[in-house]
């Protein structure tokens, strides 16, 4: 009979004590693995969602991290707004002239190229207007380019698809400018479908409701990005809501488009001086131009440009990094406590086993053989407890996988592992073997004569 078999028989002989010790170890390991796995899922969600179709976010001067959290994740509060003319700086002379013709504004705005047009050639600039809510979810004013040009997915190459309906259009005879698209989570939690109408609130989820509603024309398929928990409305309709237009000072030169003179104010677009944007999502046609454009924008007086990937990396380093160190310290303490439990359980059993050990010695077993059996028993407890704890933690994650995916966009399976949890089982085994040395030493020193006579 091998030493491992003898150790296993000893384990089974004291089944209640061994099972309780193993279960205690499994619960400790499970807690550690669960915490580290959830940390890994959150880290992946932040890191992956920072890899978006655009490479820069432009907004007012202030905190670059706040700008990123607000524009990419729809968290935090907007810093301030930028004048619409700052958005126009990403467009060519003909495109700027068309904006003046379409919305009304100073004709001089259409007499030159925008300052950044050379940097963006072949890319895009998409405006965002924030400040309203639908329930707890952000209402995001934007243009049709958001759904036509942005991509998502692991390789950032998947277009938006719709569970219901379509993307909103710039203008329709049926709904005018008041069309909206809901993210999958918004639609699910609010119980809304294509064809329904919702009314955004101003400033915060409990703010005053706007009198004008938006017709929901589409429900997005899940994307695993923050867009799942946002409501997207036509930017023109967003501007026309109460308190969303910037008051004119009286100094602006505005040349109106004759096409709009016969329309009532509800269907007449705001003029350029009355428009503001919260931020601008920018993708350079050639990414090599991004640093130059970022520096040029940041040197100006009004705007700043932030790279989402870089800002999230700073967040992970400044906040998440110390949190990880704390979690790893807790992991080590928990594993040590579990190992002490193994030590106490085996050591307490030594008094009942001294006669058995003496008999083994009398039959010819050497001291190191008895020591090895005790260490093997400790190893068995560590292996069973460690593996059982790992499965318990991942079973819990699997049970909550739907909720996790809904909240973070990360698909968690039974065998989704984080980098750090892979070190837990070897650590537990090492500590359990270390804990087994004291009872093993006690067995090593067992006196054969006195214990046989007892």
TrEMBL record:
Q: How does it sit in the membrane?
A: Multi-pass membrane protein
Per the record, the domain of life is Bacteria
Gene Ontology biological process terms, A to Z: cell division
In this chain the MacB-like periplasmic core domain maps to: 18-238
Q: Where in the cell is it found?
A: Cell membrane
Q: Which residues cross the membrane?
A: 20-42, 326-348, 369-393, 423-444
Q: Where is this protein primarily located?
A: membrane
Residue ranges of domain ABC3 transporter permease C-terminal in the record: 330-446
Q: Name one Pfam family in it.
A: MacB_PCD
Cell division among the record's keywords?
Answer: yes
Q: Does the keyword Transmembrane helix apply?
A: yes
Keywords for the protein's UniProt record, in alphabetical order: Cell cycle, Cell division, Cell membrane, Membrane, Transmembrane, Transmembrane helix
Q: Name one GO cellular component term.
A: plasma membrane
InterPro entries assigned: ABC-4/HrtB_transporter (IPR051125), ABC3_permease_C (IPR003838), MacB_PCD (IPR025857)
Q: Which PANTHER family match?
A: ABC TRANSPORTER PERMEASE, ABC TRANSPORTER, MEMBRANE PROTEIN
Give the protein name, as stated in the record. Cell division ABC transporter subunit FtsX
């Amino acid at each position: 009979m091998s030493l491992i078999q003898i150790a296993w028989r000893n384990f089974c002989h004291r089944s209640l004590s061994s099972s309780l010790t193993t279960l205690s170890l499994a619960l400790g390991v499970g807690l550690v693995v669960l915490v580290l796995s959830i940390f890994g899922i959150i880290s992946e969600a932040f890191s992956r969602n920072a890899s978006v179709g655009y490479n820069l976010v432009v907004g007012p001067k202030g905190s670059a991290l706040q700008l990123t959290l607000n524009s990419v994740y729809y968290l935090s509060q907007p810093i301030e707004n930028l004048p619409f003319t700052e958005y126009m700086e990403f467009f060519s002379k003909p495109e700027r002239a068309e904006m003046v013709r379409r919305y009304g504004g100073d004709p001089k705005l259409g007499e030159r190229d925008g300052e950044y047009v050379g940097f963006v050639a072949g890319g895009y600039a998409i405006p965002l207007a924030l400040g309203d809510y639908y329930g707890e979810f952000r209402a995001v004013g934007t243009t049709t380019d958001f759904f036509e040009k942005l991509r998502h997915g692991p390789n950032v190459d998947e277009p938006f698809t719709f569970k219901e309906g379509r993307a909103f259009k710039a203008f329709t005879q049926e709904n005018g400018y008041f069309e909206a698209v809901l993210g999958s989570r918004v639609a699910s939690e609010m119980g809304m479908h294509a064809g329904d109408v919702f009314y955004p609130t101003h400033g915060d989820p409990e703010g005053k409701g706007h009198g004008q509603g938006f017709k929901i024309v589409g429900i997005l398929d899940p994307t695993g990005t923050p867009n799942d928990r946002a409501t997207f409305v036509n930017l023109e309709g967003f501007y026309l809501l109460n308190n969303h237009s910037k008051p004119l000072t009286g100094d602006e030169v505005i040349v109106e488009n004759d096409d709009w003179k016969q329309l009532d104010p509800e269907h007449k677009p705001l003029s350029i001086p009355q428009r503001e944007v919260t931020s601008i999502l920018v993708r350079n046609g050639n990414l090599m131009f991004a640093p130059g454009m970022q520096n040029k924008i940041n040197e100006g007086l009004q705007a700043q440009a932030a790279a989402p990937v870089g800002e999230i990396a700073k967040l992970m380093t400044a906040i998440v990094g110390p949190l990880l160190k704390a979690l790893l310290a807790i992991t080590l303490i928990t594993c040590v406590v579990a190992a002490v439990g193994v030590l106490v359980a085996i050591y307490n059993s030594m008094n009942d086993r001294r006669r058995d050990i003496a008999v083994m010695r009398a039959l010819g077993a050497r001291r190191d053989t008895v020591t090895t059996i005790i260490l093997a028993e400790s190893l068995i407890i560590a292996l069973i407890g460690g593996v059982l704890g790992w499965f318990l933690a991942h079973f819990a994650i699997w049970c909550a996988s739907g909720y996790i995916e809904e909240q973070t966009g990360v698909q968690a399976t039974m065998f989704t592992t984080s980098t750090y949890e892979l070190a837990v089982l070897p650590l537990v085994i090492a500590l359990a073997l270390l804990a087994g040395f004291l009872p093993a030493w006690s067995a090593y020193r067992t006196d054969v004569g006195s214990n046989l006579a007892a």
